[in-house]
């Protein structure tokens, strides 16, 4: 299980599409692109459980649906519980094949769905949980969540105010549950992303993904910059790429030769416009500390 990631070359990405073009995500939405990749790996035997989030809209109401897969919409706090029940129901009917995939935002994961997530992880429910993290409640107009980074502005922390608390470390919470597989990924490293999805597909039990998903209107970046900012998050050490096996073994799956300064990531995002150089220096220290801690745990 802790084996190597088998990287997918771009010409090996399945051609089948399960997320139709013309859906209602904003132009450049990296969450939609991540999920498009995911569906290609998982294929047709997949059911999505979607809690209240941008994907409730992107999936679309019937007959305007954008997924060529079954979708079950559930209340905001209950994504992991609903996914668990759906999987057990399918199994009771003799269907062991269908993958149940929970799709939730950071608000639905870090905040309102955390209790259900913890329960399902502790029971080692046989589902895949995808948290696409755009670092705020975007679908309702960008309210701050516990995933919003220190120093970011939002509609509940309007300029010149910024969020004064650090981002909750969801992977540390997941680590404590010692689930079979957890990984971070972004669309800027598609081979890494696809390899992790492929690996998760072969594992039984609770699998968790933390996807950093830059959001053009929420972050105040251009719609053609979501890949750029995904990459900058990795290159600055803000969002390291790794996988975690049973909460013990951590494998960095990409290691920049040297970290770029945090300022490169912060400077061009409108949500960080109110930050002073001193505040960025404080944030830089935090990134460096977290990076060092991860390097010490790294087993690759
Ligand atoms: C119990 C409940 N509270 C509030 C809402 C309103 N609501 C719908 S989507 C949403 C934001 C979700 O944020 P997040 O989970 O981060 O996903 P994103 O919108 O960023 O994709 C909110 C607050 C709701 N549907 N149900
Ligand atoms: S608000 Fe952000 S996450 Fe939501 S659809 Fe638009 S780009 Fe995607
Ligand atoms: Mg969000």
Automatic annotation (TrEMBL):
InterPro entries, sorted: PorB-like, THDP-binding, TPP_enzyme_TPP-bd
Superkingdom assignment: Bacteria
GO molecular function annotation: oxidoreductase activity; thiamine pyrophosphate binding
Keyword Oxidoreductase: yes
Keywords: Oxidoreductase
Coiled coil segments of this chain: none
Gene3D superfamilies, A to Z: 3.40.50.970
Oxidoreductase among keywords: yes
Region (Disordered), start-end ranges: 143-164
Residue ranges constituting the Thiamine pyrophosphate enzyme TPP-binding domain according to the UniProt record: 76-209
Residue stretches of biased makeup (Polar residues): 143-159
Protein name: Thiamine pyrophosphate protein domain protein TPP-binding
Naturally occurring in which organism (per UniProt): Dethiobacter alkaliphilus AHT 1
């Amino acid at each position: 299980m802790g084996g190597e990631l088998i990287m997918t070359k771009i010409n090996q990405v399945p051609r089948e599409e399960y997320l139709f073009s013309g859906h209602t995500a904003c132009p450049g939405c990296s969450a939609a692109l991540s999920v498009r990749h995911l569906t290609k790996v998982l294929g047709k035997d997949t059911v999505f459980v979607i809690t209240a989030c941008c994907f409730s809209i992107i999936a679309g109401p019937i007959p305007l649906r954008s997924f060529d897969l079954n979708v079950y919409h559930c209340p905001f706090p209950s994504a992991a519980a609903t996914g668990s029940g759906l999987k057990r129901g399918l199994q009771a009917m003799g269907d062991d094949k269908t993958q149940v995939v929970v799709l939730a935002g950071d608000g639905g994961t870090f905040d309102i769905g955390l209790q259900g997530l913890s329960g399902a992880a502790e029971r080692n429910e046989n589902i895949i949980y995808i948290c696409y993290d755009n670092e705020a409640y975007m679908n309702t107009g960008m309210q701050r969540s516990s995933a919003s980074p220190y120093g970011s502005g939002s509609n509940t922390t309007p300029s010149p105010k910024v969020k004064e608390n650090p981002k909750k470390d969801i992977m540390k919470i997941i680590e404590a549950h010692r689930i079979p597989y957890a990984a971070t990924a972004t669309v800027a490293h598609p081979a890494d992303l696809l390899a992790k999805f492929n690996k998760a597909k072969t594992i039984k039990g609770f699998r968790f993904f933390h996807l950093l998903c830059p959001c053009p209107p929420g972050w105040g970046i251009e719609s053609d910059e979501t890949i750029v900012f995904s990459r900058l998050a990795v290159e600055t050490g803000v969002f390291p790429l790794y996988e975690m096996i049973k909460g013990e073994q951590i494998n960095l799956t990409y290691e920049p030769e040297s970290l770029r300064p945090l300022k490169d990531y912060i400077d061009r995002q409108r949500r960080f416009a109110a930050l002073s150089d001193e505040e960025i220096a404080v944030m830089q220290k935090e990134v460096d500390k977290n990076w060092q801690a991860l390097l010490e745990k790294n087993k690759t």
